[in-house]
Amino acid sequence: MMRTWCLAAAILAAGNVATAQSIQLAPLENTQAPADIPDDSLVWLPSYHFHLNMAHLSSDDERYNWDANYGGEFGIVAYGRTQLTFVANYQAGLGEKFQPFDPVQGNYTVDGVLSTRFKGLYVAGVFHHLSRHLGDRAKEEPVDWNMMGGRVGAQFTRGRTDVEARFDLLGSILKTNVDYAWEMHTGVRLHRPLYRAVGVIGGAQLRHIGTTDRYNRGDQTGGRGEVGFRVSGRAATVELYLAVERVIDPYPTEPGGETFASVGMRLLNR
Known about the structure:
The protein has one helix at 2-12; strands at residues 42-44, 48-58, 66-79, 82-95, 102-118, 121-134, 143-158, 161-176, 180-195, 198-211, 220-232, 236-248, 257-269. The protein is mostly beta strands. The longest helix has 11 residues, at 2-12. The radius of gyration is 18 Å and the shape is globular.
């Protein structure tokens, strides 16, 4: 937990507070590991995970007040240790320029993941698509990209602490009005029960993008750290958290990086 606090402080010190939720791969709070299916068994729709995330942002920019992510994943089919998973996420970025809850932008993520368990890990091939749109504002040129690559992840318990870790490495196969050549995304999430249904959570993520010379800039690095509490119920889980994050290109048509702090709530199905 102390390492998580240190990483969060380092990210916060990287720049002035001001931007929107990370535009990146499907959120790490989604499991995306293949279901535990007996060998030689074929199962349709073996797993389902849902998230609803709403955060208030600390920002002097009227474009960035609230951030919301809604989405989930479901396993299409699994055979033994191997599973095909579909992932979808919609992100709404809200400001206050034209009205108190001004829908500045909406971003759509669609992933396809083919994963299998291997010696305590899971490995996967990943197709990743992200499309970015402005709300109530003119945007004539599309902003989107498609990537393909690989993933290695693990879920395990050490003592009373549950750990989820993931590493992605993807290369661009088609992109419009972005300079992304490849991307590395890695993260870890921790959960430790405290008393009955209440526990503490911590997490850290790092995102590094290799760029072309379209905008005459070098590689870009972002990151996120968060700490909070989790309340686990019979049918759902609620997480309350504080986070700091360095975001790459928070606004679709303005390349650059910003840093923000947020307080939020996340709802997950168990």
